[in-house]
Amino acid sequence: MTSLTLVRRIKARPSVVFDAVTTAQGIAQWWGPDAGPVLIAEADPRKGGRYRVRFRKLDGSEHESSGEFLDVVRPERVVMSWRWKGGEEDPNESRVEIALKAIPEGTEITFTHSLLQDEETSRGHAEGWTGALDKLEALFAGEASA
Amino acid sequence: MVNYQQRLNRTFAALVDPTRRAILAQLERKSSASVGELAKPFVIKLPAVMKHLDVLADAGLITRAKSGRTVTVRLRPQPMREAMAWLSRYERFWTGSLDRLAAYAERKEAELRSKGA
Prior knowledge:
The complex is a heterodimer. By secondary structure, chain A is an alpha+beta fold.
C-alpha cells in the first residue's frame, strides 16, 4: 500500500495535541509545509464532519485541501480523507490517520498518509510501506547519477 | 487503462518486498544483468526469482529482453521517480507541519501548567 508514516514526540499531553490537530483554531497555527500562513481553517471534528484548510507557501502559491473526518476518538485517534482543491498537487483522494499515545514526556504522535487502494493492488498486499523513503532514495540516487 | 493511482499502488506493492528491492539494487549497480546473475545472491530457487521479476516487470520497474537463451534485465526508473515524488511531497508537507504543531502544542501545554492544570 502506498503510504508514508511519520512519528514525532511532543512535550504536551495528548488532549492538548489532539485539540491542536483537530480544531480550526489549532490547525490555523501549524498546517502547511513551510512558515507561510494558514488563510482559511475550518473543522468540524466529529465523525462525518468536514474540514477545509487553505494555506500560502513562502513562494506565494496557495493550496487548499479538504475532506471528511472518518473517525474521531479524543484524544487518541483521528482519521480523515484528503483531497487537494484543483488536484494539481495530487489528483487522488488520500487518507490521513493520526494516532496519539501518551508517553512519560507527553505524546507520541504518528501520522500515516496513504493513497486509497484500488482493488487490484490491494489483493495480497496488506503490508504497508512505512516511510522507508531512504531505501527508495538510495535506489533512485544511483539511477539519477548514472 | 492504468491510471496514476493504480501505477503508484503497484509500484509500492512491488517495492515492499525485500527480495525485489535487492534485485533492483543489483540492477542499479550494473546497467543490466541476466536472470542467472540476478538469482545468484539469493537462497531462493530460480522460479521464485522469476516470479519476483514478473511482479517488477508488471509494475514497470524492469524491462526484460530475450536474446538467444539469455534474458537480459534492465532497471526502468520512471515508476520509482513517480513514487518518490509522491512520498517526498507528503513528507515535506508533514515534516514542516509537525515542527510547528509540536511548537504550538508545547506552548499550549506550558500555558496550562502555568495555570496549574
